[in-house]
């Protein structure tokens, strides 16, 4: 029996009428993760160990700020994160500073020779280290990491329920399919969790579901455009009034499109 704690949200997401139940799951998880980071732990220096080390990606710094939930807590998270990361960076610079200063006094002849041969210098070596440091800082995010772990559990449970619970399987088959980002994630995860037979069955089912729903959304967005023709002025919008944001979501997952 898989953990119930993950089964309930997965089941609930498939009860929602939406373009992608995994988007519904992930959006909820993302909101909860933002609230957790801005909760009481943000005020305790001891619990900020991981946020000091990783920080957040661009999307999640932005979400943490625009939530306006605990700006004091967020300022403390920023405070210790910057202190720790800048101390590491300063140490790296101090170690190379003398050699960079000596590069800055390179004579005209060696200067020209180095430029021609693209010789590595103390300065280029420092810049390589600095950009590597900045790249890895930009690539880390405590919220993305937390979400990846839970999403993996959700996928595991989703596949388990798909093959154990007929009612759930029918719910998936009658859903509107997935956004392309989660379709891709589902395939990668399915390869990890399913046996050969299950993987083939799931691929057939999901591809049918996706193709049908991509045709459906294409019809909807086409009808949206056709409604601008004066001959269709009085015709019903059918399901197309919000077809543009829904189609974008179908491609790139949830965002601020509505
Ligand atoms: Zn999605
Ligand atoms: Zn992130």
Key descriptive features of the protein:
258 residues, mainly alpha, 2 domains, 12 helices, binds zinc ion
How would you describe this structure to a colleague?
There is one protein chain. The protein has 258 residues and is mostly helical. The chain has 2 domains: 20-143, no CATH class; 144-252, no CATH class. Helix content is 73%, strand content 0%. It contains 12 helices and no strands. Helix 1 (4-13) packs across helix 8 (142-164), helix 2 (21-37) runs antiparallel to helix 8 and helix 10 (180-193) packs antiparallel against helix 11. The longest helix is centred in the middle third of the chain and has 33 residues, at 71-103. Residues 20, 22-23, 178-179, 181-182, 253 line the site of one zinc ion (ZN).
CA-to-CA gap between the ends?
A: 38 Å
Q: Helical region count?
A: 12
Beta-strand proportion: under 5%
Radius of gyration (CA) equals 26 Å
The H/E string reads: HHHHHHHHHHHH
In this entry the ligands are: zinc ion
Helix/strand structural class: mainly alpha
Q: Quick one: how many beta strands?
A: 0
As a percent range, the share of helical residues equals over 70%
The major pleated sheet works out as:
none
**Poorly predicted tracts of residues:** none
Shape: elongated
Number of domains: 2
What does the average pLDDT come to? 94
């Amino acid at each position: 029996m898989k953990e119930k704690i993950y089964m309930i949200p997965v089941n609930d997401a498939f009860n929602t009428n939406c373009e992608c139940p995994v988007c519904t799951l992930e959006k909820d998880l993302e909101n909860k993760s933002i609230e957790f980071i801005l909760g009481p732990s943000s005020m305790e220096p001891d619990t900020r160990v991981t946020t000091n080390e990783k920080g957040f990606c661009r999307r999640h710094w932005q979400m943490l700020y625009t939530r306006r939930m605990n700006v004091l807590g967020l300022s403390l998270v920023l405070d210790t994160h910057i202190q720790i990361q800048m101390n590491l960076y300063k140490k790296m610079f101090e170690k190379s500073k003398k050699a960079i200063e000596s590069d800055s006094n390179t004579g005209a002849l060696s200067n020209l020779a180095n430029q021609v041969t693209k010789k590595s210098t103390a300065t280029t070596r420092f810049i390589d280290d600095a950009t590597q440091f900045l790249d890895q800082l930009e690539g880390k995010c405590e919220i993305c990491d937390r979400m990846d772990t839970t999403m993996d559990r959700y996928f595991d449970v989703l596949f388990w329920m798909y093959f154990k619970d007929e009612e759930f399987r029918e719910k998936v088959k009658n859903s509107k399919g997935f956004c392309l980002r989660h379709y891709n994630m589902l395939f990668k995860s399915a390869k990890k969790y399913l046996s050969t037979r299950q993987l083939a069955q799931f691929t057939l089912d999901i591809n049918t579901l996706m193709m049908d729903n991509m045709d459906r959304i294409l019809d909807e967005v086409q009808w949206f455009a056709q409604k601008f023709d004066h001959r269709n002025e009085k015709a019903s919008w059918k399901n197309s009034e919000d077809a543009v944001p829904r189609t974008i979501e179908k491609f790139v997952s949830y965002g601020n499109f509505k």
